[in-house]
Amino acid sequence: MRRTALRLLALSALMSVAVDADAQRAPVTRPTPTMAARSPVYAPNGIAATSQPLATTTALNVLQKGGNAIDAAVAAAAVLGVVEPMMTGAGGDMFAIIWSAKEKRLVAINASGRAGSLMTRDELVKRGRQRIMRGPESVTVPGAVGGWDALLKNYGTMTLGQALQPAIDYAENGYVVTPIIAESWGEAKNLLARDEGARATLLVNGEAPKAGDFFKNPDLAHSYRLIAQNGPSAMYGGELGQKIVTHLQKLGGFLTIEDLKKNQPTWVTPISTMYKGYRIWELPPNNQGIAVLEMLRILDQYDLKSMGLNSPAYLHHLIEAKKLAYADLARYIGDADHLTLKPEQMLADPFIKERRSHINESKAM
Question: Is residue 11 part of a domain?
Fold first, then answer.
């Protein structure tokens, strides 16, 4: 970046000299040097990409200190739970596809938690529930911590405690809230204010932090520290898990401490399909990656390139394929032990042909 800037300054200076030299002979329009919006990145030794600069920096620091990609990914994910709290965290799910160079194979892990055992059909009917979108009833077993630990033990070089340390530091000492995250935070202010815990933890004097504000989360630092000191058991049956269960049940949630104790991440076999000569890999259900594979299979017979990037025809076909795949997610995808339609059936020729038949070249569904 510094070298590019110096070149631009030199170019600007040369232009000024040329213009000044010709000033008495003829009027000259001075061209304005421009810099591209994005510069190419060269990374011969490693690269990291996340949705927040502090998480990306954390991953790079781990790599620079000798950690591997798994160490970096877990450390970055934990930091995202601090600096981007509306998107991810230790209370959520975790999925990963990994290329193991040593084994020369793809491996995948599903660390998503199941619904609480108190969520029975009879209880839902008694409460008059037909759909649950948010709130204490929607909370499932937090699978991420178990997944992080399994990844590190099988493919990492760091302990869970070591990987969590950057997140602990940011939560305890604070960080600057960035603009996009501040915007999302502000949009959730009224929702957060409804809950005593969310209000105390994520709002400051009843307000969401604004871009540029310095924000600390000592409660999250304490939770991460408990996990760092005691391992995943802090969440799955220990002090932290018990607090979660007790509070959720008080609010009408369905989790029990036994649900947390039984939680285990699952190593799964990735699923794939071919598209234009390339093999694309995703995780199997309950992960939603199968939607990507279904979309690609539906679109495989169309010549999208000839339609032109972002032309009406191009966008029409992509949008219609997405509609079909998302409808199938809602209808068929859930707990892998209870699927009515298996992934291989959803990606088979008969099913894809039937779904593709719904696409009208000139009319939206």
Answer: yes
Query: Does one domain contain both 79 and 149?
Result: yes
The whole-number pLDDT of residue 33 equals 53
323 within a domain of the structure (yes/no) = yes
pLDDT (tens digit, 9 = 90+) per residue, 35-70? 557 888 888 888 999 999 999 999 999 999 999 999
Task: Let me know whether 77 and 156 are in one domain.
Answer: yes
Name the pTM for this structure.
0.85
In sequence order, which residues have a C-beta less than 8 Å from that of residue 276 and are 6 or more positions away? 300
Asked whether residue 180 is assigned to any structural domain, the reply reads no
My answer on whether 120 and 251 are in the same domain is yes
pLDDT tens per residue, range 201-250: 999 999 999 999 999 999 999 999 999 999 999 999 999 999 999 999 99
DSSP-H helix ranges across 174-270: 179-187, 189-193, 196-202, 218-230, 239-250, 257-262
Residue 252: partners with Cβ closer than 8 Å, 6 or more residues away: 136, 137
Quote the tokens at residue 76.
């970055």
Domain region containing 18: 1-40
Q: Are 279 and 273 spatial neighbours (Cβ–Cβ below 8 Å)?
A: yes
Residue 126 belongs to some domain of the structure = yes
